[in-house]
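>> received
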Amino acid sequence: MKRKLITRIATVAMLLGQGAAWAAQPVIDVYKTATCGCCKAWIQHLEKNGFTVKAHDVADTSGYRAKFGIPQQYGSCHTGTVAGYALEGHVPAADIHRLLAQKPKAAGLAVPGMPAGSPGMEGPRQDPYDVLLVKQDGSATVYGHHGSK
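>> returned
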């Protein structure tokens, strides 16, 4: 009896600790067009992974991309910001959590285009894709790879 109670208390404490860590995540502002369904799906992915999201419907996202230091060649259908970093396209929440933990000197993360299988673009087709770490000079390196090549 005591053992079950201790196990239950430990489980509750662990879950509360995880919830507190997620609650401490900064808000992600997302700039998207009003009619884009995959943007909404990406936002749901972020929320399921502990982020609070403020969505802003805009006529054109390219101005926000430029404002936050992401070159057009890395563009996608939406642009976000979190803790001073830009998020371009369908960046997985796990990579955002890692970015916030590591705090590299960079403009942010980008998933150029709209690769099938990325968060918000789920479906029967799953293409491999890279998450790029976009540096402040506009160059980029691979930050994470998803899928198989």
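>> Confidence is low (pLDDT under 50) at residues 3-15, 18-22.
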